[in-house]
Specification:
CATH architecture of chain A: 2-Layer Sandwich
Number of strands of chain B: 19
Number of strands of chain A: 6
Shape of chain B: globular
Number of helices of chain A: 4
Oligomer: heterodimer
Structural class of chain A: alpha+beta
Strand content of chain A: 25-35%
Radius of gyration of chain A: 14 Å
Helix content of chain B: 25-40%
Strand order of the largest sheet of chain A: 2-3-5-4
Largest interface: A-B, 44 and 52 residues
CATH class of chain A: Alpha Beta
Radius of gyration of chain B: 24 Å
Chain lengths: 114, 449
């Protein structure tokens, strides 16, 4: 079944100069194990390709079930000179959480989160 | 066992003005920290100081201090550490002293921490072995030298600890790393060594978690529907033990929430490699910490880890880089999104017609998925906000751009409204140039007044 990523994870994003960081945190250990395989840097780079990141790097923080993505040069100049409304990439985590995913059915059993 | 309670009542300049008062009233704090400086705040403060030698600090702090004064009387143990000094900690301290005098608080030494401002030394540093290359592009600073307005090193906890050792009850700094505002009181109270990397890592983790104020106490949390009384959100407290264990909680009897999820989200906020969070004090490793909900609205953090600090400070440089402006119009009715996009293109075309093109321009149709244009599909919505922005080194061109919004009210597609705030302002662009500098090049200054 196709669901948004927000069904099994939450997250937060912000800026580091002209780079954005997007942290995705799984709701469960099983969800983390699956996301670690599925949500690769390549997949995230492809998803955010319209924003033009020069590259995407992924870091793991298994202790909090977190995957942290650095989207380099993705902020069109960053807080100081970007012409975008969201100069600091504050909404990018919520945008990524809308990604359609198709996880194994057992990951979705009894889940209320949208 | 001795525990140091450090509350952060301000996450940025512009944050809620009442939060630090409630926090100090009810938080049973040993230290109140107040954080005011974002990456580009220093350039704004530098220009204020150029115009007025007595300006250039975060003036909100003085309003807060005026209201905190009665609490400083009631709570003789309460100390304050803030980076409100900005580009002018000495002037900020003079004003703070006057406020304390008026409130009848005489025995309150103020520590002033400086030495972060490298602008007066810039040519000397460049002539030495400190090229201040761009941290990402490795470009040479000489290409923008004549446009630089501010150069500040991020100092660490050491000069703050020095001020505390000399008896300061209030410490006012210029640019220091945000987490160092928390590291300093923890290290000072517990008498940790400067090479006790795991404990410095712990205090840095604590500082990182509380530095953005309400972002760890329910603000921005993904389960926003489940936060009790977010309107009265409490601000964060880190209670740090001798061994580096700490607990994150919030203003007692306040709204908001502290749990594993709010802490985990903030732990990774604005972080690159979570195993290597660089500060002047330590390289903190966020990937070893264990989070445990130890009480209602309290998360205990254990197993912190740190690595030896690097031998460089980060330097934040701002330089003039032209002008920019952006304006808004509301577009309603059928095909709102398409009409808004066309209207924006029309606006720019009318400027092209008179020979004005811009180094950068951008059209957004806010409401249809435009914040991440192309990532999410365009939504068919009843109305959108058209937002057009331009950037250019010609101020005249950008000013002319701002006069092209009003005509769309009568000469654009149907459904244009909301032109009530007048022409948008033109603002100067201060671009950001991050660099590194050898610690040996920096002379920290600590004074008690």
């Amino acid at each position: 079944m196709t669901v948004p990523l927000s069904k099994i994870a939450h997250g937060r994003s912000g800026d580091k100069g002209n780079h954005a960081n997007v942290a995705i945190i799984a709701d469960s250990q099983a969800g983390y194990a699956w996301l670690r395989q599925f949500l690769t840097a390549e997949r995230v780079a492809e998803y955010f390709q319209p924003l033009g990141p020069s590259r995407v790097e992924r870091f793991e923080a298994a202790n909090v079930l977190g995957l942290n993505f650095m989207l380099y040069d993705a902020l069109a100049g960053g807080a100081s000179r970007s012409l975008r409304l969201d100069t600091q990439g504050k909404t990018l985590a919520l945008t990524l959480l809308r990604m359609s995913i198709d996880p194994p059915p057992e990951l979705l059993e009894g889940l209320p989160r949208e | 066992m001795k525990r140091v309670r450090i509350g952060n009542g301000c996450g940025f300049w512009g944050d809620n003005l009442d939060a630090p008062i409630y926090l100090a009233e009810r938080g049973r704090l040993d230290y109140l920290t107040l954080e005011y400086l974002a990456e580009l705040t220093m350039s704004i403060l530098a220009l204020q100081k150029q115009r007025d030698p007595q300006a250039g600090y975060a003036s909100d702090f003085l309003d807060v201090l005026t209201r905190l004064a009665p609490l400083l009387k009631l709570q003789p143990g309460l100390k304050i550490i803030t980076n409100a000094g900005g580009m002018n900690p000495a002037a900020c301290a003079t004003k703070a002293r006057a406020i304390l005098d008026r409130a009848g608080i005489s025995d309150c030494p103020i520590g002033i921490v400086g030495g972060d401002d490298l602008f007066p030394r810039l040519d000397e540093l460049l002539a030495g072995r400190h090229p201040l290359e761009h941290i990402d592009t490795h470009g040479s600073l000489s290409s923008i030298r004549d446009r630089v307005v501010s150069v500040n090193a991020y100092l660490g906890a050491k000069p703050i600890v020095s001020a505390l050792k000399q008896g300061a009850r209030i410490v006012i700094t210029g640019r220091v790393a945000d987490a160092s505002l928390t590291v300093a009181p923890a290290l000072f109270e517990h008498n940790w060594e400067w090479n006790d990397w795991d404990r410095l890592g712990a205090a840095t983790t604590a500082g990182h978690l509380i530095e953005c104020g309400a972002q760890v106490t329910g603000g921005l949390w993904c389960r926003w529907q489940d936060v009790p009384n977010l309107a009265d959100v409490g601000y964060p407290i880190a209670e740090v033990d001798l061994d580096g264990t700490f607990r994150i909680s919030k203003t007692p009897n306040s709204g908001g929430i502290v749990n594993r999820e709010t802490v985990a989200e903030q732990l990774l906020y604005e972080v690159g490699d979570p195993a290597r969070y660089l500060t002047p004090d330590v390289v903190a490793d966020f990937t070893t910490v264990a989070l445990r909900e130890s009480a209602p609205d309290e998360v205990e953090v254990t197993r912190s880890h740190g690595l030896p600090a690097t031998d460089t400070y980060k330097v934040s440089i701002a330089y003039r880089d032209g002008y920019m402006a952006s304006g808004l119009l509301a577009i309603a009715g059928p095909h709102a999104s398409t009409k808004a996009k066309r209207a924006g293109e029309m606006l720019l075309a009318r400027l092209t017609r008179i020979g004005l093109t811009f180094e950068a321009s951008h059209i957004e149709t806010i409401g249809d998925g435009s914040l991440a244009r192309g990532v999410l599909g365009v939504q068919d919505v009843p109305e959108v906000m058209l937002r057009v922005g331009v950037r250019d080194h010609s101020k005249a061109a950008v000013e002319r751009f701002t006069k092209e919004f009003a005509p769309l009210v009568t000469s654009g597609p149907p459904g244009v409204t909301g032109y009530t705030t007048g022409r948008p302002p033109v603002r100067e662009v201060f671009a950001y140039w991050p660099a590194l500098i050898a610690k040996s090049a920096i002379r920290e200054e600590v004074r008690i007044v």
